[in-house]
Write a structure and sequence with these properties.
The structure holds two protein chains of two kinds. By secondary structure, chain A is mainly alpha-helical. Helices cover 74% and strands 1% of the residues of chain A. Chain B is 74% helix and 1% strand. Classes of the chains: A mainly alpha, B mainly alpha.
């Protein structure tokens, strides 16, 4: 049972939050402690977990354990910033639980359970948490829900086709016929929906913009990690999935579209939403390279590192918006003269998102490019390079706004919880710098697969 | 800690110290910057001494054990690296002195020291991952130097500078990855070590990888037509920023060619040499023609840099020891001469807040010292025999004229280069004449210009003495560079 200990901790957290909700006045401090303690406990319990199988539903290989690490780490900032609302805490922990179930899923129905378990609370979280305009959040939530429902339907349809041909709910060793290929492709499309691959990305900017910043950070990191793992599980169902051949091209396209659309954004959170689309493109390219390389461990480790670094950087960038109370680029002008420390942290995070050394974002980008070159994906990797150049333009534009322009209007007032948010931003920025020294630090961990 | 590690961490430490000292006031930060810049200069001098004494033999290296991803912390120094590091440290110190009266925060000094640290790293790294990290890291402090302390159009120039360089280096990164991957498929090991990567079997991807490296280095040099960022960046940067930009950062591109691109692809270095030489000749002529058309003194100096770097490139691609050594020496010459010119344009701008050619006239009577130093540097810049520019340009042109590479020995390239030399006189002397000797026109602000202060004169005396020294006795400098270059062209 040690295998499912992290999941048990998270489930206990969900039940605890719901239980506290039964009280007339749920103690906010206790709820916040619970929201933070549950993912921390899950992380702690992950240490003792070993690969194992509880047939047929659960089968955790080493990658499932590593992936859980990234998912929990991506969720920590949101846990730290929990508002103390019991329903929000339950939804948040429920979503994390869904992700971790997805990570250890042993067959396709369990994968579906994980998918829906992580998604349903997220729809509500978008609608509920935050201080922005209520109707926009509601609209985004409904949009998110429809996109998610569509993804779920695609998955089930694909599963039916796949099962009809193979009579199997798990991976097969046999080569697939047309029907099975179509089924796998549909399931892959569901995963791409969740990652936000162009042209299945239409829901993403609205959702990331309307949700409160820490929720967007959570969605763009933990949720994306789970979705990438989901895609990788689908791609390993059979020895010859045809749809993986489109992944590099699709990834490059997504990266380019995301970068181009981010260029013209004036609202910061929408800009970061499009930037996360560009990053999703690189991830899809990475999955394509991983598949083309015969699913080798070095390329899986690269994806993992990318998601781990991104969990720090993207969370930090989104939470900066909460810490500063900024919403538009105009408000960002001259921010460095008002809050030098926070502005410096934001600049580090932006340069890291842009993949500049010496930050973690650079190592992450390098690793993905590297896998693509190893897989001989010359054209997609050059396009990805172009996209990373375009994205540098808008990240630099933000640094320029914050540092080189003069302030306009009164200083924006950050919302409640800005103090914790400030701490989170500073920690994330420090993390981005430390991850930049990854080749020095990773000797034992990811470095070990790199022989 | 080894001496080489100290060499690049010392200015880095200084940057942190300046930021902290800034909390105790601007004067504290300034003195802190001076202390670290001086210590860095002394350290660089100490590092180069054994090479001077031993005729440049030997190689000092640290590190090398591979860490994750085949990356290793591998630093090494030879005469070429150390003379560029000495140039960095020297100009960095000059920058501190030249900005001494400026009212700037600790962040200003920190950025300069950060830049010096990253540049030192570029010249020391022998692991390509490390090289790339340092290479990119130079962009960040320069971006802030231009954007925070530059003149009117600084924001645009800072972003343009960053984006252009990054555009080149992203392709350079892909080329490096391709090299490492090709080496792995051959030898079964991951390595970014420059020496191990020689002869990596790239096959059909070879020309593309070489092209990627050329893009990365070409934007930095800059090779026409990748040069359009340079006039903006140099013009808008503060005077000290222009000194570092023209004095050292442009040299990164040429250094990359000598150290990385040409040794890694010796075959392409020969087959592509006519193309590169053609671009270099174009640089020399086009840069000079553009400089002729300028009405802004600082922009004129900026375009003259493009022309001068053309000479350096011409020498480097010639494949002869004479040409490469001459080109390398010209890198250092250009750093000193153009540094002096940028400083003096900065001094003018500080006094009159103008830098147009037509804004001044008859300065010779008002500021004789400035006139003297400007004239001296202009003559060094156009290659007057006896001053430093002549040595480098002559050796570069003579190298290309005697090149063993097919097509390069046709006199065209040497003639184009010689035309560039003539054109240099044609843009520099009229500008000098119009600002310092011609009668004042309408709207002239010459009356605001006072002569140089003691501090400014001391800086320029130092620079002009160096120009004279290299011009009269280049042998010591050449022997410093030659052994390392000889090893690289074989």
């Amino acid at each position: 049972m040690i295998l499912l200990a992290p999941q048990a901790a998270l489930a206990a957290g969900v039940l605890g939050a719901l239980g506290l909700g039964l009280l007339r006045r749920p103690p906010a401090l206790l709820v916040r402690a619970l929201a933070l303690a549950a993912p921390l406990a899950a992380l702690w319990l992950l240490r003792g977990a070993a690969p194992g199988v509880l047939a047929p539903l659960v089968g955790a290989d080493t990658s499932a354990l590593w992936w859980q690490l990234v998912i929990y780490c991506g969720a920590l900032p949101m846990a730290f910033l929990s508002s103390g609302d019991d329903v929000e805490a339950a939804l948040f922990l429920g979503s994390v639980l869904g992700m971790s179930l997805l990570a250890v899923a042993g067959n396709l129905p369990m994968l579906y359970v994980g998918l829906e378990f992580m998604s349903l609370p997220a729809y509500l979280l978008v609608a509920r948490a935050g201080t922005g305009e209520g109707s926009a959040r509601l609209e985004a939530s409904v949009k998110y829900f429809f996109a998610g429902a569509l993804a779920g339907a695609l998955f089930l349809l694909g599963l039916a086709l796949y099962y009809a041909e193979t009579r199997s709910l798990g991976p097969t060793a046999a080569a697939l016929g047309p029907q099975g290929q179509a089924g796998v492709a549909l399931m892959g499309a569901a995963a791409l929906f969740k990652i936000g691959a162009v042209p299945l990305h239409w829901w993403l900017p609205d959702v990331y913009e309307a949700a409160s910043p820490e929720v967007s950070g959570f969605l763009s990191t933990s949720m994306k990690a789970a979705a990438v793992l989901f895609l990788m599980r689908i791609a390993s169902l059979s020895p010859n999935p045809a749809f993986v051949d489109v992944l590099p091209g699709l990834g490059a396209l997504t990266a380019l579209v995301g970068a181009f659309l981010a260029l013209r954004q004036q609202r910061l959170q929408r800009l970061l939403a499009y930037s996360s689309l560009a990053h999703a493109g690189l991830l899809i390219l990475g999955v394509g390279a991983w598949a083309a390389l015969g699913r080798d461990s070095a390329s899986a480790a690269s994806l993992l590192f990318y998601l781990g670094a991104y969990a720090v950087i993207s969370n930090g960038a989104f939470i900066f918006l909460k810490a500063s109370g900024l919403t538009t680029r105009t408000e960002l002008r001259g921010y460095a003269s008002r809050h030098p420390g926070l502005a410096a942290a934001f600049a580090v995070l932006l340069l890291s998102l842009a993949g500049m050394p010496p930050t973690g974002g650079f190592v992450a980008k390098l690793l993905i490019f590297w896998q693509a070159v190893r897989a001989s994906l010359a054209v997609p990797v050059i396009l990805a390079g172009v996209s990373s150049l375009i994205s540098l333009a808008y990240y630099l534009a933000l640094v320029r706004d914050a540092y080189f322009e003069d302030p306009v209007g009164p200083a924006p007032v950050p919302a409640e919880g800005a103090c914790e948010a400030r701490i989170a931003v500073l920690v994330c920025a420090a993390g981005a710098l430390i991850l930049g020294a990854a080749p020095l630090l990773l000797r034992g961990i990811i470095g070990s697969v790199w022989r | 800690m080894s001496a080489l590690t100290i060499l690049w961490t010392l200015p880095l430490l200084g940057a942190v110290a300046c930021l902290l000292a800034g909390r105790f006031g601007r004067a504290a930060a300034k003195w802190c910057a001076l202390a670290f810049a001086a210590a860095f200069f002394v350290q660089a001098l100490a590092a180069i001494m054994p090479f001077v004494a031993g005729g440049g033999a030997g190689l000092d290296a640290v590190g090398g054990a591979p860490l994750a991803f085949g990356v290793s912390y591998l630093l090494a120094a030879d005469g070429l690296s150390l003379s560029l590091i000495l140039l960095t440290a020297f100009l960095n110190l000059i920058c501190v002195f030249s900005s001494w009266e400026a009212d700037v925060s600790g962040a200003y000094w920190a950025n300069f020291l950060l830049l010096a640290s990253a540049l030192t790293g570029v010249f020391l790294a022998r692991d390509l991952f490390l090289f790339y990290v340092f290479w990119e890291a130079t962009l960040i402090p320069m971006f802030f130097i231009i954007g925070l302390w530059g003149s009117d159009n600084r924001r645009h120039a800072a972003v343009k500078f960053f984006l252009f360089t990054f555009a080149g280096s992203i392709f350079m990164l892909l080329s490096l990855i391709a090299l490492v991957t090709a080496k792995h498929s051959q030898a079964g090991i991951w390595t970014w070590n420059l020496n191990d990567l020689k002869g990596a079997p790239l096959g059909a991807a070879g020309p593309w990888a070489f092209l990627g490296l050329l893009l990365g280095f070409g934007v930095k040099i800059p090779v026409v037509p990748l040069h359009t960022w340079l006039p903006d960046a140099h013009t808008e940067a503060p005077a000290a920023g222009s000194v570092m930009l023209a004095g050292v950062m442009l040299k990164m591109g040429l250094y990359g060619l000598i150290r990385i691109a040409l040794p890694l692809f010796p075959a392409y270095a020969i087959t592509w040499a006519p193309l590169l030489a053609g671009l270099a000749a174009l640089n020399a002529v086009y840069g000079a023609l553009c400089a002729m058309a300028q009405t802004d003194l600082k922009r004129l100096v900026a375009y003259s840099s493009i022309a001068h770097l053309g000479f350096c490139l011409l020498g480097i691609v010639s494949g002869t020891a004479q040409g490469v050594v001459g080109g390398s020496l010209q890198m250092i010459n250009h750093g000193i001469t153009t540094g002096a010119l940028f400083l003096m344009v900065g001094f003018l701008y500080e006094r009159a807040h103008k830098r147009g050619l037509s804004d001044f006239g008859a300065l010779a009577g008002r500021a004789p010292w400035l006139t003297f130093f400007f004239g001296f540097s202009i003559f060094a810049s156009i290659g007057l025999p006896g001053l430093n520019g002549f040595v480098g340009e002559f050796m570069s042109l003579s190298g290309i004229a005697h090149s063993p590479i097919p097509f390069l020995d046709v006199p065209f390239f040497a003639i184009a280069g010689a035309a560039g030399v003539t054109l240099a006189a044609a843009y520099a002397l009229p500008a000098y004449q119009s600002v310092f000797w011609a009668p004042e026109g309408e709207g002239s602000v010459s009356s605001h210009v006072t002569d140089l202060t003691f501090r400014e004169k001391s800086i320029l005396w130092t620079l002009c003495a160096l120009m004279l020294w290299i011009g009269l006795a280049p042998a010591g400098w050449l022997s410093l560079i030659e052994p390392s270059v000889r090893g690289l062209i074989q």
